[in-house]
Amino acid sequence: MSKIPYTVVLLVPTGIGASIGGYAGDALPIARAIAGLGDRLITHPNVLNGAQLYWSQPNIYYVEGYALDQFALKRWGLRPVKQNSIGLILDQGMELELRLRHLQAADALRATLGLEIKEYILTDAPLGVELRSAPSGASWGTISNPGSLLRAAAKLIDQAKVDAIAVVARFPDEIDSPLLANYRQGSGVDPIAGAEAVISHLIVRTFAVPAAHAPALKPLPIEPQLSPKAAAEELGYTFLPCVLVGLSQAPRIITNQQRYTPDSIWAEQVDAVIVPADACGSSAILGFSQLQTKIIAVAENRTSMKVYPESLGIEAFRVESYLEALGAIVALRAGVALTSISPRLSSLTNYCDQPQQF
Fold first, then answer.
1. How many CA atoms, within 13 angstroms, populate the side-chain half-sphere of residue 311?
2. pTM
């Protein structure tokens, strides 16, 4: 009798100031713990990216946010791979020194980790990244030349035949920004995360290939009061290593025309989703809520989204902490109903006078 893999999705939406997962790779310990309990963990770059720090293991699947939404809505599937060839897009708006730093980082990953970084290309115009923030406090952004980004990606996919795309765009240096100061002290929203998501979403939506982004910025002045949660972004000139490691084994995207390959993963196979309790308005959660997937909502991970499952009519199991969520996964994987692990258990006889009609 074949074993059915237990599959968990870990979501921490980008750019909404999550107290855990809203910083530089600070949700990685949670991802590692969940991966130790389940057979497969599917999560996204916001969880796994820690600038020059990363963690790679065979049962953790690195899936860009737009692709994860399409997966949850049953439009796309995922196919695990042993290795992807990666194409690297560099923003023409980047200074020569920053360009060389990023190319040297890519060479370092080729030499030390054996990654297949097949080709790089400069965009034919500066991408023109602009940063924005919403009244809620969430961060977002735009790019002035999306066509330049898409032309570069098309060349890498069509001519270099790469499997995945990494992008490095030149981001504005906002050294004196209050938003950045708060973020570095562990109390604010990542000011660039929303714009990063726009860039990767555009490529994935257009080409249905794995993609992720690393910003190019000048090094910041030393901050004596730096929060450990933001410290990974202070280690050097580039955030590219975690992106290249993640993409190197990111699952390929399966569209409906290629549906149901023997090793494919589909939304119906997801057993549980773990999400901040006040961040349940994403397309992914709305998609999973229509399936048999158990949604575990974590109260301690507060965000600026303020969208709770109850307000959307979504049935979710509430827990206070990620430690409690890990316990819930242990119980679910063992086939134990979560309602059974409680000092009180309602009797079925309470419903004898008005039995449910199906």
1. 9
2. 0.90
